[in-house]
Design brief:
alpha+beta, Dna Ligase, domain 1, single chain, 458 residues, Rossmann fold, D-amino Acid Aminotransferase, Chain A, domain 1, 3 domains
Length: 458
Protein backbone atom coordinates (compact mmCIF):
# COMPACT_ATOMS: atom_id res chain seq x y z
CA UNK A 1 0.00 0.00 0.00
CA UNK A 2 1.27 3.50 -0.85
CA UNK A 3 2.45 5.62 2.04
CA UNK A 4 0.50 8.74 2.85
CA UNK A 5 1.89 11.99 1.48
CA UNK A 6 3.53 14.32 3.99
CA UNK A 7 1.44 17.50 4.20
CA UNK A 8 2.08 20.20 6.78
CA UNK A 9 0.76 23.70 7.27
CA UNK A 10 4.04 25.54 6.68
CA UNK A 11 7.14 25.54 4.51
CA UNK A 12 10.55 25.55 6.09
CA UNK A 13 12.90 28.30 5.17
CA UNK A 14 14.30 27.38 1.74
CA UNK A 15 17.69 28.88 2.52
CA UNK A 16 17.98 26.59 5.53
CA UNK A 17 17.20 23.63 3.28
CA UNK A 18 19.79 24.53 0.70
CA UNK A 19 22.42 25.16 3.36
CA UNK A 20 22.46 21.38 3.85
CA UNK A 21 24.02 20.86 0.42
CA UNK A 22 27.58 22.15 0.17
CA UNK A 23 29.13 19.27 -1.79
CA UNK A 24 30.52 19.98 -5.28
CA UNK A 25 27.84 19.10 -7.85
CA UNK A 26 28.54 19.02 -11.60
CA UNK A 27 25.54 18.77 -13.90
CA UNK A 28 27.05 17.26 -17.07
CA UNK A 29 24.98 17.77 -20.21
CA UNK A 30 25.34 18.68 -23.89
CA UNK A 31 22.90 21.59 -23.47
CA UNK A 32 23.35 24.09 -20.60
CA UNK A 33 19.59 24.76 -20.49
CA UNK A 34 19.04 21.22 -19.22
CA UNK A 35 20.95 22.05 -16.00
CA UNK A 36 19.07 25.23 -15.09
CA UNK A 37 17.12 25.13 -11.84
CA UNK A 38 19.34 25.23 -8.74
CA UNK A 39 22.36 27.00 -10.26
CA UNK A 40 21.81 30.14 -8.15
CA UNK A 41 20.78 28.49 -4.90
CA UNK A 42 23.50 25.89 -4.29
CA UNK A 43 26.94 27.34 -3.46
CA UNK A 44 28.97 24.66 -5.24
CA UNK A 45 26.84 23.90 -8.29
CA UNK A 46 28.53 23.73 -11.71
CA UNK A 47 27.16 23.33 -15.22
CA UNK A 48 29.48 21.30 -17.45
CA UNK A 49 28.20 21.38 -21.02
CA UNK A 50 29.20 20.78 -24.62
CA UNK A 51 27.70 23.91 -26.19
CA UNK A 52 29.30 27.29 -26.53
CA UNK A 53 26.48 29.74 -27.22
CA UNK A 54 24.84 32.95 -26.07
CA UNK A 55 23.18 31.18 -23.14
CA UNK A 56 26.58 30.12 -21.78
CA UNK A 57 27.82 33.71 -22.01
CA UNK A 58 24.73 35.02 -20.23
CA UNK A 59 24.98 32.43 -17.44
CA UNK A 60 28.62 33.37 -16.83
CA UNK A 61 27.65 37.07 -16.74
CA UNK A 62 25.06 36.21 -14.07
CA UNK A 63 27.71 34.54 -11.91
CA UNK A 64 26.81 30.92 -12.67
CA UNK A 65 29.70 28.46 -12.71
CA UNK A 66 29.80 27.10 -16.27
CA UNK A 67 32.37 25.07 -18.19
CA UNK A 68 31.81 24.84 -21.96
CA UNK A 69 33.79 22.11 -23.72
CA UNK A 70 33.35 23.75 -27.12
CA UNK A 71 34.65 27.02 -25.71
CA UNK A 72 37.62 25.21 -24.20
CA UNK A 73 38.65 23.38 -27.39
CA UNK A 74 37.57 26.14 -29.76
CA UNK A 75 35.49 23.86 -31.98
CA UNK A 76 31.78 23.45 -32.63
CA UNK A 77 29.76 20.25 -33.06
CA UNK A 78 32.79 18.01 -32.67
CA UNK A 79 31.23 15.39 -30.41
CA UNK A 80 28.17 13.20 -30.24
CA UNK A 81 25.55 15.11 -28.29
CA UNK A 82 25.50 12.79 -25.30
CA UNK A 83 26.41 13.26 -21.66
CA UNK A 84 28.83 10.34 -21.87
CA UNK A 85 30.73 12.00 -24.71
CA UNK A 86 31.10 15.18 -22.66
CA UNK A 87 32.10 13.34 -19.50
CA UNK A 88 34.88 11.34 -21.21
CA UNK A 89 36.84 14.49 -22.13
CA UNK A 90 40.11 15.04 -20.20
CA UNK A 91 39.29 18.77 -20.25
CA UNK A 92 36.14 18.01 -18.28
CA UNK A 93 38.06 15.80 -15.84
CA UNK A 94 40.51 18.64 -15.26
CA UNK A 95 37.71 21.14 -14.57
CA UNK A 96 35.97 18.75 -12.16
CA UNK A 97 39.19 18.02 -10.28
CA UNK A 98 40.10 21.70 -9.97
CA UNK A 99 36.66 22.61 -8.62
CA UNK A 100 36.06 19.68 -6.25
CA UNK A 101 38.31 21.16 -3.53
CA UNK A 102 39.53 17.73 -2.49
CA UNK A 103 36.02 16.29 -2.09
CA UNK A 104 34.52 13.47 -4.10
CA UNK A 105 32.88 14.98 -7.22
CA UNK A 106 29.13 14.47 -7.59
CA UNK A 107 27.80 14.08 -11.13
CA UNK A 108 24.21 15.02 -11.94
CA UNK A 109 22.81 14.02 -15.34
CA UNK A 110 19.57 13.87 -17.29
CA UNK A 111 19.45 10.23 -18.35
CA UNK A 112 21.73 7.38 -17.22
CA UNK A 113 23.88 5.30 -19.54
CA UNK A 114 26.46 2.55 -19.18
CA UNK A 115 29.08 4.92 -20.56
CA UNK A 116 28.44 7.47 -17.80
CA UNK A 117 28.60 4.71 -15.21
CA UNK A 118 31.88 3.32 -16.56
CA UNK A 119 33.56 6.73 -16.57
CA UNK A 120 32.28 7.56 -13.07
CA UNK A 121 33.59 4.22 -11.76
CA UNK A 122 37.03 4.76 -13.27
CA UNK A 123 37.27 8.36 -12.02
CA UNK A 124 35.70 7.63 -8.60
CA UNK A 125 32.86 10.10 -9.18
CA UNK A 126 29.58 9.71 -7.30
CA UNK A 127 26.54 9.64 -9.60
CA UNK A 128 23.45 11.52 -8.42
CA UNK A 129 21.02 9.29 -10.24
CA UNK A 130 19.91 5.72 -10.68
CA UNK A 131 21.60 3.11 -12.85
CA UNK A 132 20.80 2.56 -16.52
CA UNK A 133 19.53 -0.92 -15.58
CA UNK A 134 16.95 0.52 -13.17
CA UNK A 135 16.04 3.24 -15.65
CA UNK A 136 15.36 0.73 -18.41
CA UNK A 137 13.25 -1.45 -16.14
CA UNK A 138 10.65 1.33 -15.87
CA UNK A 139 11.28 3.62 -18.86
CA UNK A 140 10.82 0.87 -21.43
CA UNK A 141 7.12 1.19 -22.32
CA UNK A 142 6.73 -2.55 -22.83
CA UNK A 143 8.39 -3.44 -19.53
CA UNK A 144 6.38 -0.77 -17.70
CA UNK A 145 3.12 -2.03 -19.22
CA UNK A 146 3.87 -5.52 -17.90
CA UNK A 147 4.75 -4.09 -14.48
CA UNK A 148 1.48 -2.15 -14.25
CA UNK A 149 -0.48 -5.30 -15.05
CA UNK A 150 1.35 -7.19 -12.30
CA UNK A 151 0.70 -4.32 -9.87
CA UNK A 152 -3.02 -4.22 -10.80
CA UNK A 153 -2.73 -0.63 -12.01
CA UNK A 154 -4.91 0.60 -14.90
CA UNK A 155 -3.44 0.54 -18.43
CA UNK A 156 -5.20 0.68 -21.79
CA UNK A 157 -6.31 -2.74 -23.06
CA UNK A 158 -3.77 -4.23 -25.41
CA UNK A 159 -1.04 -6.78 -25.95
CA UNK A 160 2.68 -7.13 -26.57
CA UNK A 161 4.33 -8.99 -29.42
CA UNK A 162 6.56 -8.95 -32.52
CA UNK A 163 4.96 -6.98 -35.34
CA UNK A 164 5.55 -9.76 -37.88
CA UNK A 165 3.47 -12.13 -35.75
CA UNK A 166 0.50 -9.78 -35.40
CA UNK A 167 -2.67 -9.83 -37.48
CA UNK A 168 -4.60 -6.59 -38.07
CA UNK A 169 -7.88 -8.52 -38.35
CA UNK A 170 -7.35 -10.25 -35.01
CA UNK A 171 -6.26 -7.03 -33.33
CA UNK A 172 -9.25 -5.19 -34.75
CA UNK A 173 -11.64 -7.74 -33.27
CA UNK A 174 -10.08 -7.31 -29.84
CA UNK A 175 -9.33 -3.58 -29.71
CA UNK A 176 -11.11 -1.87 -32.59
CA UNK A 177 -9.94 -0.69 -36.00
CA UNK A 178 -8.00 2.28 -34.61
CA UNK A 179 -4.85 1.10 -32.86
CA UNK A 180 -1.90 2.66 -31.07
CA UNK A 181 1.45 0.93 -31.63
CA UNK A 182 4.44 1.88 -29.47
CA UNK A 183 8.07 0.86 -29.34
CA UNK A 184 9.77 0.41 -26.00
CA UNK A 185 11.74 3.66 -26.19
CA UNK A 186 11.24 7.09 -27.72
CA UNK A 187 10.63 10.72 -26.83
CA UNK A 188 7.90 13.30 -27.50
CA UNK A 189 5.83 10.65 -29.28
CA UNK A 190 8.40 9.81 -31.99
CA UNK A 191 7.92 6.02 -31.59
CA UNK A 192 4.14 6.09 -31.12
CA UNK A 193 2.12 5.29 -34.24
CA UNK A 194 -1.61 5.77 -34.74
CA UNK A 195 -2.93 3.08 -37.08
CA UNK A 196 -6.23 3.87 -38.80
CA UNK A 197 -6.51 0.94 -41.24
CA UNK A 198 -4.92 -2.28 -42.47
CA UNK A 199 -2.75 -0.41 -44.97
CA UNK A 200 -1.15 1.66 -42.21
CA UNK A 201 -0.58 -1.47 -40.17
CA UNK A 202 1.06 -3.41 -43.01
CA UNK A 203 3.34 -0.48 -43.84
CA UNK A 204 4.58 -0.39 -40.25
CA UNK A 205 4.81 -4.17 -40.12
CA UNK A 206 6.95 -4.28 -43.27
CA UNK A 207 9.29 -1.60 -41.94
CA UNK A 208 9.77 -3.05 -38.42
CA UNK A 209 8.92 -6.80 -38.61
CA UNK A 210 11.22 -7.86 -35.75
CA UNK A 211 10.28 -5.01 -33.40
CA UNK A 212 8.58 -5.91 -30.15
CA UNK A 213 5.73 -3.48 -29.64
CA UNK A 214 2.87 -2.59 -27.35
CA UNK A 215 -0.44 -2.52 -29.22
CA UNK A 216 -3.50 -0.97 -27.56
CA UNK A 217 -6.89 0.34 -28.49
CA UNK A 218 -7.08 4.01 -29.42
CA UNK A 219 -8.34 6.16 -26.56
CA UNK A 220 -9.68 9.64 -27.24
CA UNK A 221 -8.57 11.90 -24.43
CA UNK A 222 -5.90 14.13 -22.92
CA UNK A 223 -2.51 13.21 -21.50
CA UNK A 224 -1.13 14.54 -18.22
CA UNK A 225 2.19 14.33 -16.43
CA UNK A 226 3.44 14.49 -12.88
CA UNK A 227 6.91 14.89 -11.44
CA UNK A 228 7.67 12.86 -8.33
CA UNK A 229 10.50 11.88 -6.00
CA UNK A 230 11.14 8.63 -4.14
CA UNK A 231 12.54 9.35 -0.68
CA UNK A 232 13.09 7.10 2.33
CA UNK A 233 10.05 8.52 4.06
CA UNK A 234 7.55 9.35 1.34
CA UNK A 235 6.74 9.46 -2.35
CA UNK A 236 6.51 13.18 -3.11
CA UNK A 237 4.14 14.09 -5.96
CA UNK A 238 3.79 17.34 -7.88
CA UNK A 239 0.49 18.73 -9.16
CA UNK A 240 -0.26 17.37 -12.65
CA UNK A 241 0.33 19.31 -15.87
CA UNK A 242 -1.50 18.85 -19.15
CA UNK A 243 0.63 17.60 -22.03
CA UNK A 244 0.25 19.86 -25.07
CA UNK A 245 -0.39 18.11 -28.38
CA UNK A 246 1.75 19.54 -31.17
CA UNK A 247 0.05 21.53 -33.94
CA UNK A 248 1.16 21.29 -37.57
CA UNK A 249 4.74 22.40 -38.11
CA UNK A 250 5.82 21.83 -34.50
CA UNK A 251 6.78 18.16 -34.85
CA UNK A 252 6.76 15.48 -37.53
CA UNK A 253 4.82 13.01 -35.41
CA UNK A 254 1.06 12.79 -35.39
CA UNK A 255 -0.01 13.02 -31.76
CA UNK A 256 3.43 14.13 -30.62
CA UNK A 257 3.72 16.46 -27.66
CA UNK A 258 5.29 19.91 -27.64
CA UNK A 259 5.08 21.14 -24.07
CA UNK A 260 3.09 21.25 -20.88
CA UNK A 261 0.92 23.61 -18.81
CA UNK A 262 0.24 23.97 -15.09
CA UNK A 263 -2.32 23.75 -13.57
CA UNK A 264 -4.01 20.85 -15.32
CA UNK A 265 -7.44 21.90 -14.00
CA UNK A 266 -8.63 18.37 -13.32
CA UNK A 267 -11.41 17.30 -10.99
CA UNK A 268 -10.45 16.64 -7.37
CA UNK A 269 -11.27 12.97 -7.91
CA UNK A 270 -8.95 12.59 -10.91
CA UNK A 271 -6.13 14.54 -9.30
CA UNK A 272 -6.43 12.39 -6.18
CA UNK A 273 -6.28 9.26 -8.37
CA UNK A 274 -3.14 10.52 -10.12
CA UNK A 275 -1.46 11.16 -6.77
CA UNK A 276 -2.49 7.75 -5.44
CA UNK A 277 -1.26 5.86 -8.52
CA UNK A 278 2.01 7.81 -8.53
CA UNK A 279 2.65 6.95 -4.89
CA UNK A 280 1.88 3.30 -5.61
CA UNK A 281 4.34 3.23 -8.53
CA UNK A 282 6.93 5.06 -6.43
CA UNK A 283 6.59 2.48 -3.66
CA UNK A 284 7.10 -0.36 -6.14
CA UNK A 285 10.16 1.37 -7.58
CA UNK A 286 11.61 1.98 -4.12
CA UNK A 287 11.26 -1.75 -3.36
CA UNK A 288 13.54 -2.38 -6.34
CA UNK A 289 16.16 0.06 -5.03
CA UNK A 290 15.08 3.14 -6.99
CA UNK A 291 15.33 6.57 -5.36
CA UNK A 292 14.99 10.19 -6.39
CA UNK A 293 13.23 11.88 -9.29
CA UNK A 294 10.84 10.24 -11.75
CA UNK A 295 7.85 11.22 -13.86
CA UNK A 296 4.63 9.53 -14.94
CA UNK A 297 2.35 10.15 -17.91
CA UNK A 298 -1.39 9.49 -17.68
CA UNK A 299 -4.19 9.28 -20.23
CA UNK A 300 -7.68 10.48 -19.26
CA UNK A 301 -10.39 9.08 -21.53
CA UNK A 302 -12.87 11.58 -22.87
CA UNK A 303 -16.46 10.87 -21.92
CA UNK A 304 -15.70 8.21 -19.30
CA UNK A 305 -13.03 9.97 -17.21
CA UNK A 306 -11.21 6.65 -16.93
CA UNK A 307 -7.57 7.18 -15.99
CA UNK A 308 -4.79 5.03 -17.43
CA UNK A 309 -1.06 4.92 -16.72
CA UNK A 310 0.83 5.52 -19.95
CA UNK A 311 4.58 5.62 -19.33
CA UNK A 312 7.28 6.21 -16.73
CA UNK A 313 10.33 8.46 -17.03
CA UNK A 314 12.64 6.92 -14.45
CA UNK A 315 15.09 9.84 -14.26
CA UNK A 316 15.06 13.61 -14.20
CA UNK A 317 12.26 14.72 -16.51
CA UNK A 318 12.36 17.22 -19.37
CA UNK A 319 10.26 19.65 -17.33
CA UNK A 320 12.71 19.84 -14.38
CA UNK A 321 14.24 23.23 -15.34
CA UNK A 322 10.95 25.15 -15.60
CA UNK A 323 9.22 23.22 -12.82
CA UNK A 324 12.10 23.83 -10.38
CA UNK A 325 11.96 27.57 -11.13
CA UNK A 326 8.18 27.52 -10.65
CA UNK A 327 8.58 25.83 -7.26
CA UNK A 328 11.19 28.37 -6.16
CA UNK A 329 8.99 31.24 -7.37
CA UNK A 330 6.11 29.92 -5.26
CA UNK A 331 8.34 29.69 -2.18
CA UNK A 332 8.55 25.90 -2.14
CA UNK A 333 11.52 23.61 -1.64
CA UNK A 334 11.91 21.87 -5.04
CA UNK A 335 11.61 18.16 -5.70
CA UNK A 336 15.12 18.32 -7.14
CA UNK A 337 16.43 19.27 -3.69
CA UNK A 338 15.00 16.07 -2.21
CA UNK A 339 16.48 14.09 -5.12
CA UNK A 340 19.94 15.45 -4.31
CA UNK A 341 19.60 14.67 -0.61
CA UNK A 342 18.70 11.06 -1.37
CA UNK A 343 21.88 10.51 -3.38
CA UNK A 344 24.18 12.63 -1.21
CA UNK A 345 23.15 10.60 1.82
CA UNK A 346 22.23 13.61 3.95
CA UNK A 347 20.04 12.80 6.92
CA UNK A 348 16.79 14.70 6.63
CA UNK A 349 13.09 14.56 7.30
CA UNK A 350 10.35 15.45 4.86
CA UNK A 351 8.55 18.00 6.98
CA UNK A 352 7.28 20.50 4.48
CA UNK A 353 6.24 19.00 1.17
CA UNK A 354 2.77 20.35 0.58
CA UNK A 355 0.66 20.99 -2.49
CA UNK A 356 2.26 23.38 -4.99
CA UNK A 357 0.08 26.07 -6.48
CA UNK A 358 1.95 26.86 -9.69
CA UNK A 359 0.91 28.42 -12.98
CA UNK A 360 2.94 28.47 -16.15
CA UNK A 361 3.66 26.69 -19.40
CA UNK A 362 6.38 25.52 -21.73
CA UNK A 363 5.97 25.26 -25.50
CA UNK A 364 8.55 23.67 -27.83
CA UNK A 365 9.01 23.64 -31.61
CA UNK A 366 11.12 20.91 -33.23
CA UNK A 367 12.63 20.21 -36.62
CA UNK A 368 9.61 18.66 -38.31
CA UNK A 369 11.54 17.73 -41.47
CA UNK A 370 12.95 14.20 -42.05
CA UNK A 371 16.43 15.69 -42.59
CA UNK A 372 18.80 17.63 -40.38
CA UNK A 373 18.87 21.43 -40.62
CA UNK A 374 21.51 23.99 -39.72
CA UNK A 375 20.71 27.09 -37.68
CA UNK A 376 21.80 30.11 -39.69
CA UNK A 377 19.99 32.87 -37.82
CA UNK A 378 20.34 33.86 -34.18
CA UNK A 379 17.98 34.78 -31.37
CA UNK A 380 19.42 35.81 -28.02
CA UNK A 381 18.05 34.02 -24.96
CA UNK A 382 15.84 36.44 -23.10
CA UNK A 383 12.45 37.92 -22.45
CA UNK A 384 10.25 38.63 -25.47
CA UNK A 385 6.74 39.71 -26.35
CA UNK A 386 4.63 38.96 -29.40
CA UNK A 387 1.94 41.17 -30.80
CA UNK A 388 2.35 41.61 -34.54
CA UNK A 389 6.03 40.73 -34.34
CA UNK A 390 8.49 38.88 -32.12
CA UNK A 391 10.06 41.61 -29.96
CA UNK A 392 13.08 41.37 -27.66
CA UNK A 393 12.55 43.01 -24.25
CA UNK A 394 15.66 42.21 -22.19
CA UNK A 395 18.31 39.61 -21.43
CA UNK A 396 17.32 36.60 -19.35
CA UNK A 397 18.01 32.91 -19.13
CA UNK A 398 14.99 31.32 -17.46
CA UNK A 399 11.35 31.47 -16.40
CA UNK A 400 12.28 33.54 -13.32
CA UNK A 401 13.28 36.56 -15.48
CA UNK A 402 9.67 37.11 -16.63
CA UNK A 403 8.07 40.12 -14.92
CA UNK A 404 4.87 40.96 -16.83
CA UNK A 405 1.94 38.79 -18.00
CA UNK A 406 2.51 39.54 -21.69
CA UNK A 407 6.18 38.53 -21.51
CA UNK A 408 7.72 35.11 -22.12
CA UNK A 409 11.17 33.60 -21.98
CA UNK A 410 12.55 32.39 -25.32
CA UNK A 411 15.45 29.99 -25.73
CA UNK A 412 16.66 29.06 -29.22
CA UNK A 413 19.31 26.76 -30.64
CA UNK A 414 22.62 28.52 -31.18
CA UNK A 415 23.81 29.79 -34.53
CA UNK A 416 25.71 27.11 -36.44
CA UNK A 417 24.04 24.20 -34.61
CA UNK A 418 22.91 21.25 -36.69
CA UNK A 419 19.42 20.15 -35.67
CA UNK A 420 18.50 16.54 -36.35
CA UNK A 421 14.94 15.60 -37.26
CA UNK A 422 12.61 15.92 -34.26
CA UNK A 423 15.22 17.76 -32.18
CA UNK A 424 14.38 21.05 -30.52
CA UNK A 425 14.75 24.36 -32.36
CA UNK A 426 13.27 26.75 -29.79
CA UNK A 427 11.07 26.92 -26.71
CA UNK A 428 9.13 29.50 -24.75
CA UNK A 429 8.25 29.60 -21.03
CA UNK A 430 5.36 31.64 -19.68
CA UNK A 431 3.94 32.46 -16.26
CA UNK A 432 0.48 32.48 -17.77
CA UNK A 433 -1.63 29.72 -19.30
CA UNK A 434 -0.77 29.06 -22.92
CA UNK A 435 -3.93 27.09 -23.79
CA UNK A 436 -7.32 28.68 -24.44
CA UNK A 437 -10.67 27.52 -23.04
CA UNK A 438 -10.92 24.84 -25.73
CA UNK A 439 -7.48 23.46 -24.91
CA UNK A 440 -5.88 24.88 -28.07
CA UNK A 441 -2.56 26.73 -28.09
CA UNK A 442 -3.19 30.46 -27.98
CA UNK A 443 -2.58 32.08 -31.34
CA UNK A 444 0.13 34.47 -30.17
CA UNK A 445 2.19 31.60 -28.71
CA UNK A 446 1.91 29.48 -31.84
CA UNK A 447 2.85 32.43 -34.05
CA UNK A 448 5.74 33.43 -31.80
CA UNK A 449 7.44 30.03 -32.10
CA UNK A 450 6.77 29.73 -35.82
CA UNK A 451 8.36 33.17 -36.25
CA UNK A 452 11.34 32.10 -34.13
CA UNK A 453 11.77 29.01 -36.32
CA UNK A 454 11.61 31.17 -39.42
CA UNK A 455 14.28 33.54 -38.10
CA UNK A 456 16.59 30.69 -37.09
CA UNK A 457 16.32 28.53 -40.21
CA UNK A 458 16.74 31.27 -42.81
Amino acid sequence: MAKKSFVFSRERNIKMDFAKITAPIFYVTPEPSRAIGLEKTLPNFHIVCLDDNLLVDLLVQRGVKVFSLEKKIGKDNQLLRTTGSVLESPHVWEYIEQNSQGEQPNILFFKPSKKIEAIAYSKKYRLLGNTSKLNNLYEDKISFHKSCLSWDLPVVNGEIGLLENCSYDDLGKSYGQRLVIQFGHGWAGNTTFFVENEGDFKDLQAKFPKREVRITRFVQGETYLVNACVTKEAILVSPPAIQITAPEGFTANLGGTCGRQWPAELSDKTEKQITQYTQMVGDKMRNQGYKGYFGLDFLLEEGTDKLFLSECNARLTASVPIYTKMELKSGKTPLLFYHLLEFLGNSHQVESYEKREVTGAELIIRNSQPRQMKVSGELAPGIYTYRQELSFVKEGYSFEDIENPEEFFLLAAGQGRTIASENEIARINTREKILDEEGKIKDWARRALLKAKEKLLI
